[in-house]
């Protein structure tokens, strides 16, 4: 929501009917953190691709289901609504599966570690 805006936005609205790639929308950001709404619908990470991010990521599934897998782990984390996980910076991970029959709505908070 823009500063001073009196009209709220809803995380569950404005969902496209179909889309070729995950939808990532920045909701708020500054130099320290970024909050994104991510919408998946059967999307997965490309074969052999691993996220290796500079920031820490806290992510929660609000709707739908997903499976995340971390490098050197054999068992994916199966996330359902309300499940959340903190992914430390440079912890390689990928989206192994998202529900194909409904949108999976994620809320992700990215932030950098305090350099102290």
From TrEMBL:
Q: Which residues form the Cupin type-2 domain?
A: 52-110
- SUPFAM superfamilies per the record? RmlC-like cupins (SSF51182)
**InterPro entries reported for this sequence:** Cupin_2, RmlC-like_jellyroll, RmlC_Cupin_sf
Q: What is this protein called?
A: Cupin domain protein
Q: State the CDD domains in the record.
A: cupin_reut_a1446 (cd06981)
Q: One Pfam annotation, family name? A: Cupin_2
């Amino acid at each position: 929501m823009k500063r001073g805006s009196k009209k709220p936005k809803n995380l569950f609205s404005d969902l496209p009917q179909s889309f070729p790639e995950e939808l990532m929308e920045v909701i708020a950001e500054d130099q320290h953190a970024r909050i994104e709404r991510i919408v998946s619908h059967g999307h997965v990470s490309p074969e052999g691709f691993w996220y290796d991010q500079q920031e820490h990521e806290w992510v929660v599934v609000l709707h739908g289901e997903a499976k995340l897998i971390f490098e050197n782990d054999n068992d994916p984390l199966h996330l359902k609504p309300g499940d959340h996980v903190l992914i430390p910076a440079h912890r390689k991970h990928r989206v192994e599966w998202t529900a194909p029959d409904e949108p999976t709505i994620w809320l992700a908070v990215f932030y950098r570690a305090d350099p102290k």
